[in-house]
Amino acid sequence: MEKVHLVYYSPAFSTRKILRIIGKGIASPAKEYDITQGVGEPLLFGKEDLVILGVPVYSGRVPAPFVDIFQKIKGENTPAVLVCVYGNRDYDDALLELADLSKENGFIPFAGAAFIARHSIFPKIAENRPDDQDKLQLMEFGEKCYSEFLNLNIDEDKELKVRGNHPYREPSNIPFVPKADSTCDNCGTCVKLCPTHAIPEGNPKKTNKDICIACARCIAACPKQSRRFKGLVYNMVRKKFESSYAERKEPDIFFT
Q1: Burial of 191 by CB count in 10 Å (0-12 exposed, 13-18 middle, 19+ buried)?
Q2: Any idea what the Cα angle at residue 221 is, between residues 240 and 50, rounded to 5°?
Q3: I need a surface site. Which of 42, 133, 215, 253 has the fewest CB within 10 A?
Q4: For 163-216, what is each residue's pLDDT tens digit?
């Protein structure tokens, strides 16, 4: 192995956390790429690299902004581990979509997994995950990926098969966006870190609902913990969601 690369789109930082734990199970230092706010120069990887690629699940799909960013990330028969992270409802077609995109861009996925983390919009769901049990599974997954990589023959005609369907499900529209309360001190952290530039610099307590993707990055990044989802519609949906998806889900793991 020449190099290990952790490449993640992680607005609320959960996917980053998951990939870092997986990386600990691989006996080689890893270089990180946070592509949440895009990339400058294209990222190019070779056949001697190992890329661990992680995304959160939005309404059962890969996040739409990631699809655009990923056009500048290319492999050359590069072995890849695919990871999607979801909030205990379902990952639907996201892992399959990620596999399709990676193959189109020159990667050879030989392992894939769907792991669970705290839901970014309804944080009472999977509230403490990844927990100790998850962390053990993540480390073991990383160790298994390393072992599989050492014995990988990229010239073999073996295809990674993951759960999902064609055509992909239609993503849902999120009817609410995060806003700040009176504790906001206009520091501008959320303005700088919002991947869609949905928070106006002159009034960071507001959110442009037309371009917000409800990724919760502003909530996770706010040093004052001023921002959150709220409102009558949100609370109605939250209560229904919490009653429907409280039962613990376990990871799905796939190898060629």
Answers
A1: middle
A2: 95
A3: 42
A4: 999 999 998 888 899 999 999 999 999 999 999 999 999 899 989 999 999 999
